[in-house]
Amino acid sequence: MRLRAPLLALALVSLATACREDVLLPPLEVEPPLFAFSLYLEDGQLKPNADVLLVRRPKHLEHVYAHSRAEDKEEHESARAVQLFGIIEAEFKDAGVYVANQVVSLRCAAVELPDCVPRWSFIDELLGPGDGPGSRRLRQALADSFEKTARQRGMENTLVLATVNVLLTRGMLKSALGNVAAAEARAVRAEHRAMVEGPGEGAPAPRQAVTPVKTPAPAQATPVPAPASLPPSPGLVQALTGNNPTPQVAPGPRLPRDVVVKQEVPKELRTTRPIGSSPSQNAQIQADVQYLQNLGATNIRVNQQQLTVENRQRVGINRPDLQFDYNGRRYHVEYDTPVSGRGPSHQSRATSNDSNAEIILLIVR
After folding, report:
1. CA–CA separation, 95 vs 88, rounded Å?
2. Residues 7-40: pLDDT tens digits?
3. How far apart are CA 213 and CA 139, in angstroms?
4. Tell me: the pLDDT tens digits for 323-361?
5. Stated pTM of the model
6. Which partner for 96 in 20, 145, 208, 299 could form a disulfide, CB atoms 3.0-4.6 Å apart?
7. Would you tell me how many other CB atoms lie within 10 Å of the CB of residue 75?
8. Are 15 and 69 members of one domain?
9. Domain co-membership, 337 together with 281
10. Alpha-carbon Rg for the chain in angstroms
């Protein structure tokens, strides 16, 4: 394989497609040197081979990702973190596109070659055993770009979903789902080869039906139900019975912009407003609002700046997804995805602004 690309992209593609061109990876550094952006950036540009060096240092990778997600993107360190992590994420996306094009190519449909079978365990080899939010974000970027390209190229939906599930879940390559992906790949490629080769000199052999391998339930996407049909979030219900599944954290220093915020309480907006672009999260929060109203909760606000109990004062410009009063206590609820990792930072900020409030973190897929 010949590919002009940064070292990380070359390593990703080589490992993912079992390419035989040697790519020497630096050792995985569990305890890296003291972090500094100068290890990876020079005059605003990525240093040679610094991309692969960063992913081989999981603690540094997670540090950069955390700062790239900081609320204040204008801070110099945050800006450099956004640039650095953006470079790495773009290389993972490019690798997903390349591998999808390789797998679905006419060359791979005609004859099964070693580099036609993705070796998805490469992601564990490259990123190491850590599973922090930065690592999960890179897995998601690779999976999304692979899925999008594979669908555009006409890959079977079942195979796409099974393959992506293997990629996103650590250690699953030897599981039933990994076997499903491998079996589906062999079946689809066999059928493609039969179509490409066509009849020989003699009478064409009858085509054998390919028996699809049943995939686990998550492979089939289900439509988001209407808010009225959704039950309230189990974590919310549990928290209001006095057994909050979210461990509470100690308050820390408040952000300066929260400290100087005017205490005047802004007007209440409609509770049907969205909290983001996710249909499933928007549907779930509406089900939870309905549950709280039926329960007798008061001062319910959706996606508005943080207030204390009984809406006495504004304490921050941050906007919890959901906040309300119940039994004399203020609650703040954050809805997150399994891979974003933003919940803990939001919890820390809300707790620092009001140590008497209780925080509930919910995961909605």
Report:
1. 11
2. 677 667 665 555 544 556 788 999 999 999 999 9
3. 25
4. 999 999 999 999 998 887 888 999 999 999 999 999 999
5. 0.47
6. 145
7. 12
8. yes
9. yes
10. 25
Contact 143, 160 (CB under 8 A): no
End-of-domain residue from the set 148, 183, 199: 199
Half-sphere exposure in the Cβ direction for 6 (13 Å, CA): 20
Q: For residues 119 and 18, is the Cβ–Cβ distance under 8 A? A: yes
Residue 221 lies in a domain: no
Residue 212 lies inside a defined structural domain of this protein: no
User: Are 112 and 181 in the same domain?
Assistant: yes
Q: Do 260 and 119 belong together in one domain? A: no
Tell me the C-alpha distance between 93 and 90, whole Å.
5
Do 333 and 280 reside in the same domain of the chain? yes
What does the block give as tokens for 178?
Answer: 């990994």
The residue segments making up the domain with residue 65 are 7-199
Angle between helices 76-104 and 7-16 (to 10 degrees): 30
- Cβ within 8 Å of residue 45, ≥6 positions away: none
User: Which of 180, 199, 218 is the endpoint of a domain?
Assistant: 199
Q: Say how many domains are in the chain.
A: 2
The contacts of residue 258 (CB under 8 Å, 6+ apart) are 315, 316, 317, 318, 349, 352, 353
pLDDT digits (tens, 9 = 90+) for 148-191: 887 777 665 545 555 555 555 544 333 333 444 444 444 444 54
Residue 297 DSSP SS3? coil
In the chain, beta strands by DSSP E: 41-42, 45-46, 298-302, 322-326, 329-336, 358-363
Instruction: Please indicate, yes or no, if residue 59 is contained in any of the structural domains.
Output: yes
Q: Could you tell me which of 330, 351, 358, 332 has the C-alpha nearest to residue 254?
A: 351
